[in-house]
Amino acid sequence: MEDVTDASFRILCREAGAAMVTTEFVSSDGLVRDVSKTIAKMHTLEEEAPVAVQIYGSLPEAMVDAAKMADKAAELAGGHGADIIDINFGCPVSKIAGRGAGSGMMREPDKLVAITEAIVKAVNKPVTVKTRLGWDENSKIIVELAERLQDVGISALTIHGRTRCQMYKGEADWTLIAEVKNNPRMHIPIIGNGDINTAAKAKEAFERYGVDGIMVGRASFGHPWIFTEIRHLLDTGEELPPMSVKDRVALAKRHFQLSLDLKGPVTGVYEMRRHLSCYFKGLRDFKETRIKLVTSKDPEEIFATLDYVAERWGGEAPEVEGVYGI
């Protein structure tokens, strides 16, 4: 979710019903080196609270220092700050895991636990962890690791139901997530993650696997209203109809305006492109219009193109529902 979950997107997710949101992951090395772009990622707003600042890295001292900085995010980056410090031990991307950070830490569980314990002791806010089942099929260590992380004081644990070597391939294994949740030694909240891209799958995660919460990542990209769909099904037992194209246009325009307000006309346009390319998945004969949305540099032209989308496709529903994400 790097370069996706900025403040404009997080605000939309909270408005749609997400219980809490998390920043883009923040490099501990970048924070310690006082890299301004990295510090800026900790900037949060009151409208998105509760919000976690998410850090990653592999060097113990840098991770502790970064956690202390995240603890003071309001002072360093302005805005609301952090309600929670979240440690990312789950990212599988080669440039992260390959140098021992993210899910690369799954190969060094003792070091992973030691870093977590040091961070818990160093900050005043709750600390949470996101991790995977293990490094590969032969090292699914999550059941024991969950106990160890709980014992050093984390407040909640999010588990992605794949190993690092699986990346995002195949289906997430929720049976091991359930095994952690049903372990009589565990008493902290267990949050399940992986393949939740419809409200029905979210409902199944609660009912079949008994988790305390679910985390939606890639499936919210271009689809922030998934949280509305999930809450409605959980609350009423009924699924909402697909969001109309006109409503999607209205949401995209609000998202775009927030991006412009928070980042200015240059960065606001550039960083919105990845979202605009996904808002209208499934529309027929949309390729030319999509290209226009993601290549234009003029905000007014983009707003005009969005108005055209509402006019041209307003009476249609996407042909493919429930298929979103990166």
Give the overall silhouette.
Answer: globular
Largest sheet entry: 8 strands, parallel
Any idea of the CATH topology of the largest domain?
TIM Barrel
Compute the gyration radius: what is it?
Answer: 20 Å
CATH architecture descriptor of the largest domain: Alpha-Beta Barrel
Low-confidence stretches: 320-326
Order of helices and strands: HEEHHEHHEHHEHEHEHEHHHH
Mean pLDDT: 92
CATH class of the largest domain: Alpha Beta
Q: Figure out the total of helices.
A: 14
Describe, in short, the structure shown.
With 326 residues, the protein is α/β, with parallel strands linked by helices. Helices cover 47% and strands 10% of the residues. The chain is globular and about 55 Å long.
Characterization of this structure:
The chain is of the alpha/beta class. The protein is globular, with a radius of gyration of 20 Å. Helix 8 links the parallel strand 5 (127-132) and strand 6 (156-160). It is built from 14 helices and eight strands. The N and C termini lie close together (9 Å). Strands 1, 2, 3, 4, 5, 6, 7 and 8 form an eight-stranded parallel sheet that branches. The protein folds into two domains: 7-236, TIM Barrel (Alpha-Beta Barrel), CATH 3.20.20.70; 245-313. The chain has helices spanning 7-16, 28-32, 36-40, 60-71, 73-77, 94-97, 109-122, 142-151, 174-182, 199-209, 226-236, 245-276, 287-295, 299-313, and strands spanning 21-22, 26-27, 51-56, 84-89, 127-132, 156-160, 190-193, 213-215.
Features:
14 helices, disordered C terminus, alpha/beta, globular, 10% strand, single chain, TIM Barrel, 326 residues, eight-stranded parallel sheet
